[in-house]
Design brief:
With 72 residues, the protein is mainly alpha-helical. The chain has one domain. The chain has four helices and no strands. The longest helix is centred in the first third of the chain and has 14 residues. The protein is globular. The N and C termini lie far apart (26 Å).
Length: 72
Protein backbone atom coordinates (compact mmCIF):
# COMPACT_ATOMS: atom_id res chain seq x y z
CA UNK A 1 0.00 0.00 0.00
CA UNK A 2 1.41 3.35 -1.06
CA UNK A 3 0.10 6.35 0.90
CA UNK A 4 0.55 9.77 -0.64
CA UNK A 5 0.78 12.73 1.71
CA UNK A 6 -0.79 15.94 0.45
CA UNK A 7 1.44 18.99 0.15
CA UNK A 8 0.70 21.55 2.89
CA UNK A 9 -0.28 24.06 0.21
CA UNK A 10 -3.02 21.68 -0.97
CA UNK A 11 -4.47 21.87 2.53
CA UNK A 12 -4.39 25.68 2.48
CA UNK A 13 -5.89 25.70 -1.02
CA UNK A 14 -8.80 23.49 0.09
CA UNK A 15 -9.42 25.64 3.17
CA UNK A 16 -9.36 28.84 1.12
CA UNK A 17 -11.76 27.29 -1.40
CA UNK A 18 -14.16 26.55 1.46
CA UNK A 19 -13.89 30.18 2.58
CA UNK A 20 -14.72 31.35 -0.94
CA UNK A 21 -17.60 28.86 -1.18
CA UNK A 22 -19.00 30.14 2.12
CA UNK A 23 -18.63 33.76 0.91
CA UNK A 24 -16.12 34.73 3.65
CA UNK A 25 -13.61 35.52 0.90
CA UNK A 26 -14.10 36.60 -2.68
CA UNK A 27 -11.92 35.25 -5.51
CA UNK A 28 -10.69 38.78 -6.23
CA UNK A 29 -9.72 39.48 -2.58
CA UNK A 30 -5.99 39.83 -1.95
CA UNK A 31 -4.14 36.97 -0.30
CA UNK A 32 -3.33 39.15 2.71
CA UNK A 33 -6.98 38.84 3.79
CA UNK A 34 -6.25 35.23 4.66
CA UNK A 35 -4.05 36.56 7.48
CA UNK A 36 -7.13 37.88 9.24
CA UNK A 37 -8.55 34.36 9.36
CA UNK A 38 -5.38 32.41 10.19
CA UNK A 39 -4.01 34.46 13.09
CA UNK A 40 -0.99 32.77 14.66
CA UNK A 41 -0.55 30.32 11.76
CA UNK A 42 -0.27 33.13 9.22
CA UNK A 43 3.53 33.53 9.40
CA UNK A 44 3.97 29.90 8.28
CA UNK A 45 1.47 30.23 5.43
CA UNK A 46 2.90 33.57 4.32
CA UNK A 47 6.37 32.00 4.02
CA UNK A 48 4.93 29.08 2.05
CA UNK A 49 3.08 31.40 -0.33
CA UNK A 50 6.18 33.53 -0.85
CA UNK A 51 8.24 30.39 -1.52
CA UNK A 52 5.88 29.75 -4.44
CA UNK A 53 6.37 33.36 -5.58
CA UNK A 54 2.98 34.65 -4.50
CA UNK A 55 2.62 38.28 -3.45
CA UNK A 56 0.24 39.19 -0.66
CA UNK A 57 -1.44 41.49 -3.21
CA UNK A 58 -2.22 38.59 -5.56
CA UNK A 59 -5.90 37.63 -5.74
CA UNK A 60 -7.16 34.52 -3.96
CA UNK A 61 -8.20 33.17 -7.38
CA UNK A 62 -4.51 32.72 -8.33
CA UNK A 63 -3.97 30.46 -5.32
CA UNK A 64 -7.08 28.46 -6.20
CA UNK A 65 -5.97 28.09 -9.83
CA UNK A 66 -2.82 26.11 -8.98
CA UNK A 67 -3.21 22.52 -10.15
CA UNK A 68 -0.05 21.01 -8.70
CA UNK A 69 2.15 21.95 -5.77
CA UNK A 70 5.18 19.97 -6.88
CA UNK A 71 8.41 21.60 -5.83
CA UNK A 72 11.36 21.71 -8.21
Amino acid sequence: MNLQVAHPMEKLQRQVQKLVDSKLLKPNDSLWKIALLYGDDWSFWKQELEAFEFSMKDPVSELLAVESWEED
